[in-house]
Write a structure and sequence with these properties.
The chain has about 120 residues and is mainly β. It contains no helices and eleven strands. The strands form two sheets. Strands 2, 4, 5, 6, 9, 10 and 11 form a seven-stranded mixed beta sheet that branches.
């Protein structure tokens, strides 16, 4: 059964950086488009970045120019490099495999990112 384990979150000051990881198992990782989502406190989960199986990327306007999604298929791992973090980036971050706009796998536990001085 496919599953994801997210890690790398933490507390960081505004302007700081974090690198999130998503370890995939139970699936042929390289054939899937992957995405990062986040759920801010009291809000709905939102899509912030996608990467196809041919490494084409797409970003939400709120993170464009600050976040970079990448993948290493040999490691079955998805990454999210987050720079110039802002308090509004505070959220639980999740990864998932996607087909169009639909997620494919059950959600993992996510990783908490808190941006605060």
């Amino acid at each position: 059964q496919a599953r994801f384990v997210e890690s790398g979150g933490g507390l960081v000051q505004p302007g700081g950086s974090l690198r999130l990881s998503c370890a995939a198992s139970g699936m042929i990782f390289r054939i899937y488009s992957m995405a990062w989502y986040r759920q801010p406190p009291g809000k709905e989960r939102e899509l912030i970045a996608q990467i196809t199986n041919s490494d084409t990327t797409n970003y939400a306007d709120s993170v464009k120019g600050r976040f970079t999604i990448s993948r290493v298929n040999a490691e079955n791992t998805l990454y999210l490099q987050m720079n110039n973090l802002k308090p509004e980036d505070t959220a639980i971050y999740y990864c998932n495999a996607v087909a169009g706009t639909q997620t494919i796998v059950s959600w993992g536990q996510g990783t908490q990112v808190t941006v605060s001085s």
